[in-house]
Amino acid sequence: MQSLRADRRDRSERPGPRDPAPSRLAYRAERLWLTPGFRRMVRLGLPSFLILAATVGYLGDSGRRDALQAKLVDLRLSVENRPEFMIELMAVDGASEPVARAVRSMLPVTLPASSFRIDLPAMRAAIEQIDAVASAELFVRKGGILQVTITERVPAILWRNGAALEMLDATGNRVATLLDRSARPDLPVIAGEGADEHVPEALTLIRTARPILGRLRGLVWMGERRWDLVLDRDQRIMLPEIDPVPALQRVIALDQAEDLLGRDLVAVDMRNEARPTLRLKPAGDGQDEIQAKVDGQ
């Protein structure tokens, strides 16, 4: 009987089966870990913060900062001055000697020098500011050669601007200043304020005037709106503001048929398309007949 009681007492004192549910603290910790933002903060934010704090602490000392900066400078120089990055000489192709000299003077360093010390895009932009240069290409060739390939503007016409004589290309861009007209007798001449802005039209008129090119002395931009063709013997062909090419063609056709420009004319005025006018020298012969032929064209 006593043994039975003792057995019951032992059973009552034994702990019951363990509750499988987590504690409140463990539950909250698990829920917090399942939050994406918290996981990112622990995995990324906390290490980043620790690294940043360590870096700030290390660089807080000025001596360590100076030492680190000196090491970085030495490392950069050791890379920049490697033989494969050194430029030994500069080659300029496609340029005349004056332009080549100007290009070489623009090199910002003395060779040999590291290619890291030369800003190629900036140097190209500076070279293309030279009047005679249409375009430039820069690259570093094998063997430490800075290759500069120049495309120069081709002079197409001379523009007399006051006392100066400028060479222009076919688009009206300045090429160079000419000191003596006899240096380029092959180029036609234009004159007048703003004539450089109408070079393509002037060149078209010069091509149209090919039959009388031997007598052509130049073109004058009049009133900043139209052209006069100046011929020898102090003759002029005064062209209209609009459609000057057909007007010039009419004058040339009449000259070929009737030797119009061989007469004692001062000017052929084509400014009024409906009524072309001849200005004759005093006591000119046959002026009525010529006037009738021009009016009938």
Structure summarized in a few sentences:
With 297 residues, the chain is α/β, with parallel strands linked by helices.
Run of helices and strands: HHHHEEHEHEEEEEEHEEEHEEH
State the helix count. Answer: 9
Shape: elongated
Domain tally: 2
Q: If classified by CATH, what would the architecture of the largest domain be?
A: 3-Layer(aba) Sandwich
Task: Summarize the amount of helix as a percent range.
Answer: 25-40%
Strand content: 15-25%
Biggest sheet: strands, sense, closure? 9 strands, mixed
**Sheet/helix structural class:** alpha/beta
Find the CATH topology of the largest domain: Rossmann fold
Average of the residue pLDDT scores: 84
The name of the CATH superfamily of the largest domain reads Cell division protein FtsQ/DivIB
Give the radius of gyration. 44 Å
What is the total tally of β strands? Answer: 14
CATH class of the largest domain: Alpha Beta
Low-confidence stretches: 284-297
Please give a structural write-up.
The chain has 297 residues and is an alpha/beta fold. The protein has two domains: 83-152, membrane protein fhac (Ubiquitin-like (UB roll)); 157-295, Cell division protein FtsQ/DivIB (Rossmann fold), CATH 3.40.50. Helices cover 39% and strands 23% of the residues. The chain is built from nine helices and 14 strands. The strands form three sheets. Strands 8-7-6-9-10-11-12-13-14 form a nine-stranded mixed sheet, covered by helices on one side. Strand 10 and strand 11 (226-231) form a beta hairpin. The radius of gyration is 44 Å and the shape is elongated. Residues 284-297 have low confidence and may be disordered.
